[in-house]
Amino acid sequence: KRVILSGIQPTGTPHLGNYLGALSNWVQLQRDSSPNDTLLYTIVGWHALTLPQDPKKLLQSRREMLATLLAIGLDPSRSIIFHQDHNPHHTELAWILSCLTPFGKLKRMTTWKSRLADSRNANNESEVNESLLNAGLFTYPVLQAADILVYRATHVPVGEDQTQHLELSRDIAQIFNQTYKRLFTLPEQLSTPSKRILSLKNPATKMSKSAPDVQSRILLTDSHTQIKAKIRSAVTDSITGVTYDPETRPGTSNLLTILGACTNREGREGSDVAADYRSKGHGELKADVAEAIEELLRGPRSEFGRLREERGYLDDVAKDGAEKARALSEITMLDVRRRIGLS
Ligand code: TYM
User: Fold this and answer.
1) pTM of the model
2) What beta strand segments (E) does the chain contain?
3) Atom 26 of ligand 1, nearest CA residue
4) ipTM over 0.85
């Protein structure tokens, strides 16, 4: 019996990287799961607060993320879909776990280290500007561990960028088990078959919601015209012909990865796709990539357009999901409180 859990931040519209790297796998797992499996998918509003958010926009993004999850095919009668901030057990457990987490482990998180580096660059000094960094950014991975452990999840489908956070979750679970009586199973990462999707403008970095250039990402809400324009202007190289070589040709290879992932649910490798383009050029590749993305997103996009207006329905789904989630996490919390002497 598996307990599958994953989360996504409600910061703006999800992009193709989120979809191919994570969300499509959530739907696939729902399809392949046995009736004994529990599936939990959460929209992590508390994690979003680690960066400044406009309250009105956050409320809207949070609702739109729920509409997105439904639009791509998650079924609330099969999967427990809920807002993290509707279940206080996450923060309760996060506090308890933070008292077991070595400071040094958090300091080694690459996400934290890159935030530190950003705060240095912004001031062009060797000193870290502490006023740019909040404590939540530092303890972010502990809250993520709590999201997972509070349901005693066995499997966590995430993209490769979350591997270190998953390792930390296992470390924290182990520390709890050693300090108290064994309670947590160690959650296993389920990597999505398709690789990391890169920025269309700077293929040295991953496609991200926060990159300033909106041309660098395809949004799940983009029209056919927008998709075509963004792919046409994607950065490639001036080498003739199309080959798959992520080291020397990251832009071209990223397009092949996208094409492979869009045209095959199991995630055909970019290297396999390249064979079809041996005698073709970037122009043809780009045209095919744009069509494949359009093909993939057309259904979810129109479903999203319909659902985002259905406020009452979305509120009902969220309320129902939160109730189911809380009933499950309460069982863990009773156990946790008893073990630590706070029952
Ligand atoms: P977030 O919101 O940044 O991303 C959600 C999911 O999308 C994947 N992803 C990508 N995959 C491939 N290519 C990309 N360019 C790309 N960008 C994002 C991420 O790997 C992720 O699976 N900390 C998490 C949210 C979280 C969570 C959790 C996840 C909070 N609690 C508990 C799992 C379990 C995050 O920031 O994801």
Assistant:
1) 0.91
2) 3-8, 38-43, 80-83, 155-158, 188-191
3) 7
4) yes
